[in-house]
Amino acid sequence: MAKEVIISRLKEYFLSRGVELLLPEELKLDNAIIEFFDLFLRDGNNLIAIKAYSPGEKLAPRIKKELEVLVVTSLKVKDFIDKAYIAIPEEIGLLKIPQEIFENAGVGILVVSDKEIEERLPARAFRRYSRSIDNALREEILRFSEELNRFSHRIERELDKVRNELSVLSRRIDSLYEDLNVLKEDVRRLKHVKERKIEEIKPLRVREKVSVRGIEDLPDFISDNPWVSILIKRGKEE
User: Fold this and answer.
1) What DSSP string runs through 33-57?
2) How many angstroms separate the CA atoms of 87 and 111, rounded?
3) Where would you tag: which of 39, 46, 126, 164 has the fewest CB atoms within 10 A of its CB?
4) Is the entire prediction scored with pTM above 0.90?
5) Across the strands, what pairs with 39?
6) Which residues of 85-118 are buried (b: 16+ CB within 10 A; e: fewer)?
7) pLDDT in single tens digits along all 238 residues of the chain
8) Per-residue DSSP letter, 81
9) 41 contact partners, CB below 8 Å, separation of at least 6
């Protein structure tokens, strides 16, 4: 059976099972991987790659060696695909397949005939363990992100409170500055009024000391009073 026939039979088989066929252009894979495998499929979350093998010579030792090389090559790309199969024509026969190598590597075997396709050996997921680690890490990151968001919201609420308190404090400080300026102006006016009053009162405080004759024996607060002198003068004039 030619390789092209094997690939065509595989497409029909997987399409009938509802598996999605993928074009190499859709995949973000290295060109070496795309060139090595003949068929790419999507089964749920699994990316499946199939290598179709049709021996040029029917010699058992040669077939065994070529299959071993294919298994080793498939393992080299296990970090990029989930499952790998090697599809072989029915005429190769079970005895010519190094099945223990496939089992140890986790690479599946599909036997293709004109009537049917048999999954002789199921493939194991290469990245099952690493994916479980990835999922656990993703969940942990998600939990951490949610906790970080909650913490961020709490911080934001506290910051809003601080901003409001600062705004109130700022308004109070502005009010105090206004009161202080008013008080300064009042003090300035009072100082000006005081100085003016002092200037008005000064002449009254400077009294001329008048000596009243004839009343030397009177007390100082009477003898020094200018009105006493005026009254005495008026008395004399009369």
Assistant:
1) HHHH-SEEEEETTEEEEEEE---SS
2) 6
3) 164
4) no
5) 50
6) bbbbbeebeeebbeeeebeebbbbbbbbeeeebe
7) 788 888 999 999 888 888 898 888 887 777 888 888 889 998 888 888 898 888 776 666 777 787 788 888 877 777 788 888 888 888 776 556 677 888 888 888 899 888 889 888 888 887 644 455 556 666 777 777 788 778 888 888 888 888 889 888 888 998 888 888 888 888 888 887 777 777 766 554 444 454 555 555 556 556 566 666 666 666 555 5
8) -
9) 14, 19, 20, 21, 22, 47, 48, 49, 50
3-state DSSP call for residue 89?
strand
For the domain 3-126, what is the CATH code? 3.40.1350.10
**Six-digit token pair at 29?**
């894979």
Looking at the chain, the domain(s) classified CATH 3.40.1350.10 span 3-126
